Each structure stands twice: as C-alpha cells, then as structure tokens.
Amino acid sequence: MIENSIRTVLEAPEAGEGAPTPAHIEHLLTSGYARAMAIEGEQWRLQRRIVDVALQLADEYNELQARDLRKLARELREVDEELVSIRALIRSLRTRTNAP
What we know:
mainly alpha, 3 helices
C-alpha cells in the first residue's frame, strides 16, 4: 500500500545510511498522486450514484433505495477520509523533499 511506503520514508533518516534516494521519493510522490487521483475517481462515482438514488427517491420513496443511499453516504465519508489522509502524506513527503 502506497500510504505505508510513504510513512516508512517519512520515518527514515533524511541523510546518511537508510535515507531514501531522491529517485525513490519521486517514485513515491508519483505513486501517491496516482493513488489520490484514483480515490478522487471513486469519490466522483459515489457522488454521482448518490445523486441518482436521491433523484429516484424524490420521485418515489423506496426503502431499499433509502438503505442504498445510507450505504453510499457511508462509503463516500470513508473515501473522503482516505483522500484527506493520502493528500496529507503527499504534502509531508513533498515538504521533506523540499527541505534544505
């Protein structure tokens, strides 16, 4: 999981033995950005699905769709939290890379 790899690098020494190479950090940043984009895609998919179900519920209430809407809302909350987390890790890694 890219998040764990980034955490490992953030915990590693900045210089000397055991320090990550600039190439390794760049690879992690690229992978982290790709992961964030994938999460944003999932976020977008869930938001679209929520709108679709909500529009159906507006036309006619259905308990199954109401449960589906609650499930989708929970999933969206989890995806939102995951996106905040990966963005924070990327920001920390980028800050470390730019440090003197």
